[in-house]
Amino acid sequence: MAEETRQDRHSVLFVQLVFMYQNVAWQAMGKIKNPVTDRIDRDLENARYAIDMLEMIRDRMSGSLNDQEKRFLNQSIGELQLNFVDEVEKDRAKAKAAPETPSSLKEELPKVVPEESISPSPKEEPDKADSGEGAPSSAGDRVSQKASQAGESKSRSGRTRTAKTGKSRKT
């Protein structure tokens, strides 16, 4: 009789252990409120961890569980896994629907002024007679022309490399 009471107690404790990890997973998936913070929080990594713990318990205790405990544990894991996949799919759908540049970043981006509205200053415009070439058509061309006259080349990263020293500097 003492053995039955012990088995019953262990069965109750096992169910409580499964419920504990199950609640952690539900809270982490944002399905139920966190009782401590009284908020709905989502942390899918934590949910995955709780589900993994239940799978580990099932694998490690497979020989020690009775049929009812096995069914309960498998049902709990299956239900959590289906909801986890649903939550991951929701995140993927949100990521696809979200614009490439968040609106908060759009406000911080610098405004681009068309090159036509930039008037060259007299000292920046090269003398056609000195260079032997036509006048550059834009401000970017003027910078490239000055760099080539100085023996420099501009890389894609915006750095200018001098032909003499090979050192680069930010322009």
Which properties best describe this structure?
Methane Monooxygenase Hydroxylase, Chain G, domain 1; mainly alpha; 171 residues; elongated; 3 strands; 3-stranded antiparallel β-sheet
Please characterize this protein's 3D structure.
With 171 residues, this protein is mainly alpha-helical. The chain has a domain at 2-96: Methane Monooxygenase Hydroxylase, Chain G, domain 1. It is built from six helices and three strands. The chain has helices at residues 2-28, 44-60, 67-97, 103-108, 128-131, 139-149; strands spanning 152-154, 159-162, 168-170. It has a three-stranded antiparallel sheet. Helix 1 (2-28) runs parallel beside helix 3 (67-97). The chain is elongated and about 65 Å long. The model has no long low-confidence stretch (mean pLDDT 76).
What overall form do the CA principal axes indicate? elongated
Give the CA-CA distance, first to last residue.
87 Å
Biggest pleated-sheet summary: 3 strands, antiparallel
With helices defined by DSSP (H or I, 4 residues minimum), what is the helix count? Answer: 6
CATH architecture descriptor text of the domain at 2-96: Up-down Bundle
* Residue fraction in strands: 5-15%
H and E string: HHHHHHEEE
What's the mean pLDDT score?
76
Report the top-level CATH class of the domain at 2-96.
Mainly Alpha
What CATH calls the topology of the domain at 2-96 is Methane Monooxygenase Hydroxylase, Chain G, domain 1
Please count the beta strands (DSSP E, at least 2 residues each): 3
What is the strand arrangement across the widest sheet?
Answer: 1-2-3
Gyration radius (Cα, Å) is 34 Å
Oligomerization:
single chain
Secondary-structure-derived class: mainly alpha
Helix content, binned percent:
55-70%
> Uncertain spans, ≥5 residues at pLDDT below 50?
none
